Amino acid sequence: MIFTRLSPNFLSTLGIAVGVVAAVLFARGEFTIAGVLVATSGVLDLLDGKIARNSGKTSVFGAVFDSTVDRATELILYTGIGAYFILRDMHWTSLIVVFAAGGSWLVSYVRARAESFGVSCHVGFLRRGERFFLLAGGAILSFASQPFHDLIIGLLDMLSLNIRYAFPPMPLTIVIVLIAVLSPITVVQRLVYVWRVTKSSDSRVR
């Protein structure tokens, strides 16, 4: 396999490069292609760690570099999505993107902080893999935004609900709302988990 001949750090770099292109496409409203690239970036992220372990190329720098690139890639993607909404005066939606980005960062931060003290912390509803899956899926499904929009509006009309939307009811925005809501819940799950694991130890480290 050609990927096995590549440096894990090269794959990490390629992953963030793909993420930058996806962010530009998000900002331009080309969601479906951007979603494919998000999925590609996620696959590259899986491959770099696997190749590093299988080839014996693991290193402290490689692990830190990979983790840094992962966080940066996700932030870049949210920036592109937020730019799309801001440029179209969808300010409430862009604010939700900020909450989604911040929540995602906190999920990763809690895990990194816990693991720095030797506590493995992979629990929670919305880990990085799930977030990438949702982003990619929501973006790819945007080719059906109009039918999706018509379906939501039709259901609301049937229920006699006259709701003014602060954001367009399309797959990507629904995904962003889900991430904004579930990320803080995941943070709490991880904090509770760490508390349970460490409460019996007399740890005073801050």
Number of strands: 0
Instruction: Tell me the radius of gyration.
Output: 19 Å
Average pLDDT = 85
Describe the sheet with the most strands.
none
Order of helices and strands: HHHHHHH
The level of helicity is: over 70%
Give the termini separation. 45 Å
Stretches where pLDDT falls below 50 for ≥5 residues? none
Blueprint (SSEs and pairs):
Elements: H1 8-28, H2 31-54, H3 60-87, H4 91-116, H5 128-140, H6 145-158, H7 171-198
Helix pairs in contact: 1-2, 1-3, 2-3, 2-5, 3-4, 4-7, 5-7
Explain the overall architecture:
The protein is an all-alpha fold and 206 residues long. It has seven helices and no strands. Helix content is 75%, strand content 0%. The chain is globular, with a radius of gyration of 19 Å. The termini are far apart. The mean pLDDT is 85.
Descriptors for this entry?
single chain; mainly alpha
Task: Give a short synopsis of this structure.
The chain is mainly α.
